[in-house]
Every structure is written in structure tokens, then in C-alpha cells.
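$ fold --in a.seq
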Amino acid sequence: MKIWSSNHTFSYSWESISQAAWRKYPNPMNPNVVGTDVLSRRVDDSGRLHTHRVITTAQWPFPDFVSRLIGFDKRCYVTEYSIIDPATKTMTLRSKNVTLASWMAVEETLIYQEHPDDANKTLLTQEAQIFGSSALGIPSYFEGLVVDGMSSNASKGREAMDWVCKKIMAEMQDLAAGAQQLGAAMGFSSDTQSSV
């Protein structure tokens, strides 16, 4: 077993980051993610949103010879459970691979929390545990390959979150500008629009 961990501070509020997490895929930084499907969603008595999703990817960090050896077709499925707690401003995502889990299991946890000193920032704590099967012959070698890929993918994931946040901000500005133009075309002044 190998453990990988990382911490990062986003220059966006927790509200922005938690919205961006739902719109993270597709994005140009992670073209291997080809789909996300929500299997269930509910709000508990404490007001926390629980979601179960399946994420489909088109690659796995095994060398081609290993993929051929075990008969793998390159399509992978990951199950993700998340809890968003608006009271504590915490979003926790736990994921694990379904595909090839008997050969190599990866369990990842991401926790997004409002920065304690700056409400305009969000802290990300990310950890993964990688379990290689002894059937692979040298599990630590393959676990090491996955750990190496985790660092690269984590960096791409942070870039993707930044990209989505900027995209959402641009959409909000476009929407506000469109509303102002519509209001002006209908004869409303900006004072009238803000009071509506």
C-alpha cells in the first residue's frame, strides 16, 4: 500500500469552489474523463447534500503491456460519494475505482473547506491510498506508477477547478450585462432594476 497526499489553497470562496466541483467535467485539462452520472442525491435532516456519482474515464495509468495481459479495454469507472455541508462550509468527496479494483484499488478523499483566515479562499486537502494486488507480481512497482500519476492528475484537477471558476464568473458577468441591456431596452433604469 502507498499513500499520497497534497494540500492546496484556491483563491476562490468555498461557495464558488463547491459550485465548480459539479461542473468540473468536461474540461480541457482532463480530457480522459468522458462522463459523470448522478446515481442518487438527497438532503439529510441537517441540510447536508449527499450525492453518489459514477465517473467514466478513458484511461488508466497502467502500461499497455499490463492492459493487454489482463484484458483491459481502457474504459474505467469510479464511484464517488460526496457530502456538502453548508453549515460548516465543507465539501467531502470520497472516490474509489470500480474497474480493476481486484488488481489495483485507489481510494481518494478530497476535502474542500473555507479558509479559516480568509472567506475568499478555500483549502483543499487531498489524500489517496493505493493498494496493489500481489497477483501483479510486484505490487509496489505498480502502486508507484499510480502515485506518480496522482501528482500529475492532482495538478490538472486544480487547474480545471480554476478554469471552471473563471468560466462561471464570466457567465455571471455575461448574464448581468444581458439583464442590464434587456432592462435598458424595456425602459428600466439601473436604479429600478436593482430594486426589483
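$ fold --in b.seq
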Amino acid sequence: MSCRLIGPLYILGNLCISFSPDLKMLYFGRIVCGVASGLSSSPAAVYVIEISTPLWRTSFNAGLSAFYMFGTFLTYFLGKWIGWRALSSVSCIPPLLSTVLLCFIPESPSFLLTKGRNVEGKMALQWLRGDEYNIEKEYQELLTSVNKLRKDSMKIEENFLKKCLRDLMSLLLNLIRPDVWKPLLIIIIIMFLQQFTGLATISFYAVSIMESAGSSIDKYTATILYGLVRLLACFFGSYLIKKAPRKPLFIISSLLVSLGMGLLGLAVYLQEVQGVTGFAIGLLPLFSVFIVAISYQAGLGPIPWSYQSELFPVDLRSWMSGISGCISHLYVFLTIKTFPSVQYTFSPHGAYWFYACIGLLAAIFGATFLPDTKGKSLAEVSEYFTSSCCILRKRKKGESTSISEPVINSQEIDCLVEKV
């Protein structure tokens, strides 16, 4: 439902940009589009994760990056031939189509089951898998997982403010659960390493980077080629993630991104500091960003976003994915805004070498702390974090630890809300 409400925000923002009479309206349009982008990333990823089978989960989640890059490529391509006002008007078409088409697909089965709408959840799962598919085993596993995490079997009447306060207190009190805080810590670190490898700087400063790095090809054409290569790399990455274990893939991807950033820094160093020129040297910047684009989409890009949607337990997944998405977008903002300062501090070529060092740190983190969830169900992922961490309460002999239970029950939360 939330995804259906975001399309109109995109349309409003793009129309404000397209018909802006002054700078204030232009800023307003950009803010609205930014809000829509932030609101859409987590719900879309969570929905894809929850409706996918374990075998295809990461590949389908990586498909989100592919469509994102398709839009980026179209923006690069059309931006060379039409003005920014016309481009903003054209950008209203995708959210309009998505708003209409989303009306024909069901809600996530996991979401419906957590709300107690079991019949609708089973029908949605059957629709997603097909009429001839036997969903009984999958449905029972999902229902068991949801029942263990559902706080209440009966809903209580409460006003909106009290409900928000109750949900917030429940979230804060459950942060000490091992299947909550440990995935959150992993996501915070891995998203930091992902964004500060500097790919966002190439995407947002692509034209100026190609110009300053001395590319032998026209800067706009080089930018379009970069967008095309990254788009094709998304499909290659989706296939590779399905076939290869995630942990080695993430490590190799991080190392190659580090290599690409190092070569980009070398190209700038040779031309600006050493004064080396030539057609071959002019191709080195484009070759470097190609390495970064392909390597990033093969692991460092899609794997953290997949973790963001699948590591958290089902009862808090929407909350925690939203928080993780917010943190990730904050990292993107900081990466882009600090790029000129990083260049000023470390020199233009030193900035790319700095990002290359972050890539090395990402590889080290992947080798030491990153779990491999390939082929595991969402319940098995929660079990991994629960069983591998200290247990919050002493369990009875023979008691299952597959799913971490809330550390405080709903009645205790209600009492705290009433006191507030």
C-alpha cells in the first residue's frame, strides 16, 4: 500500500521542477522527489524480499538496482539531447505507470499474516506462486514464524498518538534482541563501507569527473557509456549472485572496486601532476570507472541492500529496514557533499585513493563479519543471529531458540504507554 502512495509524490516533484518559475519552486520539487525516493527504497526492497523464494531472493532484489540503473541510464542519455525541464516531465511517466500497475498485485503474505489476515495471506501466496504450486509447506513455515513473533492476537482500540508511542516503545525495547541489534550493526557498517567507496560521487559528478580526469571521449558520451555499462553490470550481477556464494563475491567485488578507484586516481595523478598525455592515458579514466561500475554491481552494491531487507525478523522488518534505508541515504548525502572537501584535503587524485582504501576495508569486513544467507529462509536467518549471540533470558532445557521472542510482552508495553 505504501508503494502505491509514493508515485504521486514523484509526479508532484517532477512537475514542480519542470514548471518551476523560480529557484524556490525548483528546490521544493527536488525536496519532494528526495522524500519520495527515501520513502520508496525500503518498502520496495522489503516487498520483493518477502514475496521471493530463498533461491531467487537476492537476484530479484538485485533487479531493483537494475531498474534503478535503467532510469539513470535514460536520464544520462536523454539529458544529452533534451533540456532539464522536458526531462523532468518525461520522468513523470514511470511513477504514473507504477501507481496504476501496483493496484493489480497483492500485499505481501508476511505482512498480511502479521496483521492476522491469514486467509488473504494464503491467497496472496498462492497468487504469487501460481495456481498449480503447492504452497502448504511454505505457508505453514511462514505462519509459524509469524505466530512466534506476533505480539497480540487481539487488537485494542487506541488513538493514533498512543499507537505511535506504543510502536516506538516496542521498537526501542526490542533493540536488545540479538536478532535485531546484530543485523542492525552489520547493516550500519556495511552501508557505510558501501557508500564511501565513492561510487555515488561518480554517478552524481560523472560529467565533471570525466572532464577533470582528461577522458579522450566527449564527457557526455563517456557518461552515457558509464551508465550503459553499469546497467548491463546489474543484470550480470543478478545472475552472478544467484550462482555464487555471497561472502566471497562481496570480498572480490570490494577489492575490484578498490582497484578501479586506485586506477582512476592514478589517471588523474599522471595527467595533473606528472603531465603525461596521450590517447591511451585519456582512456584510463573511462576504463577505471568501468571496472568500478561492473565490480560494484557484482556484489558490493546489491548484497548490502539484500541484507537490509532479509536480516531482520519479520515482526520488526518494516521498521528496521526503514531505519537502515534512512541511514544509507544519509551516507549517500554525506558522500556526495563531502566529495569536494575530500578532493581539497587529499588532492583530486588522493580522493580516489582514499575511496580505494575504503574498498579494502569493505573486503576485510566481509571476510571477518559478514554472514552468508544464500539459500536460507528468513526464519533460518533469524535463528542464526539468535543462536550465535548471547540469549537474553535463561531458557528451559529443550526450548527452541529458532526465533527470538520479544523481550517485553504487549501488556507491559501497554502499562508503560498508559503511564506516559
